[in-house]
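We modelled the chain as a single entity of 156 amino acids. Its sequence is:
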Amino acid sequence: MSKAFMNKNVAVFTGTRAEYGLLFWLLKDIQNDPQLQLQLLVSGMHLSPEFGETYQQIEKDGFVIDEKIEILLSSDSAVGTAKSMGLGVLGFSDALARLQPDVLVILGDRFEALAAAQTAMIMRIPIVHLHGGEITEGAYDDAIRHAITKLSYLHG
């Protein structure tokens, strides 16, 4: 680990079961590093009964959820997604102000991740963006991924 991140509060955002699976071992490594303090922000599909309330699996895996940010509206429309992003910015603003992380780790290209990233950028919290170089042709995921990449300090 770089000296820049020693004795630091490392916030990690997860909004879906899919990216949580990719983050699992990174979360374990941060959790087990005595020089780092894991701060877990959980949102999106994890909190939805419609998608199985998968935050419970995160807790079963031995992680403490520091903040649950409710944003998901039961809508597949563009308006519903935009409203969910707005709720996300409100919730992430409060959560990040409480936690005061030194860095925020975000993986991927979901709209929830963009809400977290734009909030962190405005609050001057450096963002580490993972899986930023992937391509999803024909979906707005590409634009979201590129936006998160532009907002980010480090890329992996």
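As a brief sanity check on the tokenised model: The longest strand covers residues 36-43. Strands lie at 8-14, 36-43, 65-69, 103-107, 127-130, 154-155.
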